[in-house]
Amino acid sequence: xxxxxxxxxxHRQLSAPIGSTLVIRSAGHGPVAATVEGEFxxxxxxxxxxxxxxxxxxFVLKGDGRLKLAxxxxxxVAIPDRPPVVELLEQPRANLRGSLSVAxxxxxxxxxxxxxxxxxxxxxxxxxxxxxxLVDAPRLPLALPVTANGVGEARSTLxxxxxxxxxxxxxxxxxxxxxxxxxxxxxxISIYLxxxxxxxxxxxxxxxxxxxxxxxxxxxxxVAGALDALMLEPE
Length: 235
Known about the structure:
Number of helices: 2
CATH architecture of the largest domain: Sandwich
Distance between the termini: 77 Å
Shape: elongated
Number of domains: 2
Largest sheet: 6 strands, mixed
């Protein structure tokens, strides 16, 4: 922002996105006399810069504000930063080797900074579990669309074969985060997390009991009973 001092600029309006940084820099005469009003958050002043006759102050725009500087008044109108949008293009598909294929589309006014799939609310045999799991739910990073701002369509393949949550029915959401830290998410859908295929029935049963113990540690006695039964009759 440059101040020219022309009379017709004594009071004017500017627009800037929320989160923008206002930089007030002076040179030659020490810190400039400036008044900042409204929804600004002041950052730590740099004070003198590499040039001893320069000074600098910085403010982050949080909402509408006003800057009075060198006889001029600038009304600063904050442009809201909308939350990002992410949507599924199709139902996620389980692959034969225990991975999950997810296709999605993103949109945002300034760009996507991060994208992930989150799972929650595991079920066992139709029962929603309320215990705190022994292993946290996987948070699965998704590839951003190959565009300058991460907006567009993309597909990711998520490998869940080593997760103890694999094979459980869960609630799944895709969550996008923009540069301003805002988040947007898809509506939750209920799916089975795929698991790697087993040809050995005993291995399949042991993995199932591991999952039950991880997701419902309060039911460990039931898991212990199932393991005892497997030891007596492993087939």
